[in-house]
Amino acid sequence: MNPVEVRGLAKSFGEVRAVCGIDLDVLPGEIVGFLGPNGAGKTTAIRCLLDLIRPTAGTLRLFGEDARRGGVRARRRVAYVPGELRLPPRATAHELLHEVARLRGDCDPVRRAELVGRLGLDPHRPAKTLSTGNRRKVALIAAFMTRADLLILDEPTSGLDPLLQQTFRELVREAKGRGTAVLLSSHVLAEVQRTADRAVILRQGRIIAEGTVADLRGRAAQRVEAVFAGPPPDLAAVPGVTDLAVDGQHVRARLSGPPGPLLAALARADVTAVDIAEPDLDDAFRGLYDDRKEATL
Ligand SMILES: Nc1ncnc2c1ncn2[C@@H]1O[C@H](COP(=O)(O)OP(=O)(O)OP(=O)(O)O)[C@@H](O)[C@H]1O
């Protein structure tokens, strides 16, 4: 039974088609990055999966159970960190975590204390006095202290400094090591690139690309820079070269597909330096993230 199995999910809010028929699977021990620009429909899909809102169409299953009819049983195996946190203002982090542990019954107090230490949280301050990042820490500790088989994390690192983002990535990898599945929603490509096995890219409610992080990076255009001893050759007609920019003897471009034709063109010219950068997910989806452009993947 897969932790997540979604088929044909659609959700409209009146005229607004937030999610337009998506399929989504998360397997045991798999980290799936759920990516997309603001308003792409990530949170809506997650809220449907957790039965917080009702889908317009589609079937949603958690561990083989219908997310609505069998949802209560299935959700015992899920820990969820929402993107927008509302914590009871007067309760301290310690009290909140204690209450979550009591309600769930699958939390280890030693593990909780370890996480409080690793994330550097002062557990004795009331929630209303905590900064955004510290509130996020409370929610992350509440999720990671459970023995959930599926973590659903919506924009989990917003408000965390780079060091804590690193700790977060370690926690996700450790969870995966224990066989926990993770659905990690984010609009930060670098975060997904560093943690996820697979990424699903949503735009305007539709999946526009999905695959392993390595696959998706492989499809990206590489950034190329070259410096010539004299006037640069015209590279505009070289197959695979786009976004050409010439500044004196310095040329910048993007390269898709095999590098042979460009390397041949460079070798014929008086080139003094060449740099071809390994593409990252950011390169892969630069175009896709721009709602004004047509998707090309
Ligand atoms: N309750 C609602 N009523 C009306 N429209 C909504 C509601 N919730 C979401 N939407 C709309 O649905 C679309 C998808 O929003 P959603 O919050 O799911 O996107 P998202 O990918 O999670 O974005 P973000 O990264 O900004 O959180 C947006 O156009 C949003 O305005």
From TrEMBL:
This is ABC transporter ATP-binding protein. Belongs to the ABC transporter superfamily. The keyword ATP-binding applies. The keyword Acyltransferase does not apply. GO terms for cellular component: plasma membrane. It is found in: Cell membrane. It comes from the Bacteria. Residues 4-229 form the ABC transporter domain. The lineage of its organism: Bacteria, Bacillati, Actinomycetota, Actinomycetes, Kitasatosporales. GO terms for molecular function: ATP binding; ATP hydrolysis activity. It is a peripheral membrane protein. InterPro entries: AAA+_ATPase, ABC_transporter-like_ATP-bd, ABC_transporter_ATP-binding, P-loop_NTPase. Keywords: Antibiotic resistance, ATP-binding, Nucleotide-binding, Transport.
